[in-house]
Amino acid sequence: MPPPFCAPAKGARPPWWPENEPWPPRGPLLRPYATRGRFFRRLAMLAGVVVLFGVFGILSLAWFVATTAGIVGSSNRAAVMMVLGGGLFMSLAGFVMLARTFRRVGSPLRAVMEAADRVAAGDYSTRVNEYGPPPIRALAHAFNTMTERLQNHDKLRRDLMADVAHELRTPLTVIQGRLEGLLDGVYRPDPAQLQELLDETHVLSRLVEDLRTLALSESGALELEKESIDLAALARDVVRAHHADAASRDVRLDLDAPGDLRPVEADAVRIREVISNLLSNALRHTPSGGTVAVRLSAVSGGVSVAVRDTGRGMSADEIAHAFDRFYKGPESRGSGLGLTIAKGLVAAHGGDIRASSEPGVGTTISFTLS
Asked: Which among 344, 355, 366 is positioned nearest to 317, based on CA atoms?
């Protein structure tokens, strides 16, 4: 059995990396760092010049004192004074240059340090002005990017907690109400009542498992047991398992899976979950008399799986949020996690998933594995 997979493959985009930024980082993201070595070399050269100027000034002053005290003879006192004055001027100029340089560097660094203290205290809205030498501006920009991401992640965390509490409240409220009704004699403890309670526990259990899978996939800690699998055979099994649901909804379920597709390296259980989520979602959004089609095809470097329905379709705004946690369309009755989990599982395999739709025609969700 192959070892479990705990992180994205080398070179693959990490699940936490923003989708609007290239991976691996390139171009403007790395440009500020190219000047960092040059900046510190210049700073070191400036410090060396100041030290030389200072040494020259000290030696000139020592020469003047020695000449004045008669320790060292001098035939030209005017020349001594000129050397002393020149040494003192050069030392003073060097120290002024160094002070200005450190002020240009120290002021923005102090601002970043003070801002870091505020972020450590929990104020993720903190930002700093981006000024100073190029490497310091790059540092300030990186700090602002970091705090913006921390602020976004904190908002996502708060929203997730609120959404989880809302989703868990519904089945718990139903279970509590039914149990109280049974105890008070409002409901008879017959098999029908007990079956409804069991159905609600299944809803609760499925939601908890979905949240666990989502957390593991987004943190990169999801363990995958990869093996060579036949996607066509796997898709046929999943479609067969959904035939009863499709028949109850009066929805036609089609499958186009060529038998000559090459095997892919994937976790069969997780990919089955992806296809099942996409099928369940498509069946929920397809009206009676509609069609849900599953099509597999060979693409460059892998196999593509597409699930198409003939539902009402989605607008551009709905497509943009289709893979967000707990996002539901106007007619959705699910938990809002199916597509999010599918995206996380496909990303963990190093694949990509996308949605396309046309209002009034239907929606297609497709993913590719190599």
From this structure: 355
Q: What is the pLDDT of residue 298?
A: 92
* Half-sphere exposure for 251 (CA within 13 Å, toward CB): 28
165, with CB counted inside 10 A (0-12, 13-18, 19+), is: exposed
Q: Which two tokens stand for residue 28?
A: 């403007």
CATH number of 152-219: 1.10.287.130
Residues 6 or more apart in contact with residue 328 via CB below 8 angstroms: 334, 336
* Token digits of residue 363: 């929606």
Q: How far apart are CA 239 and CA 222, in angstroms?
A: 25
Q: Which residue has the tokens 């240009």?
A: 104
In this prediction the pTM is 0.58
CATH C-level class of 227-369:
alpha beta
Tens-digit pLDDT profile for residues 160-206: 777 777 778 878 888 888 889 888 888 888 888 888 888 888 878 87
Cβ atoms of residues 211 and 185 within 8 Å: no
Q: Using only C-alpha atoms, what is the Rg of the chain? A: 34
| For the chain, domain boundaries | 27-149, 152-219, 227-369
Phi, psi of 212 (to 5 degrees): -65, -45
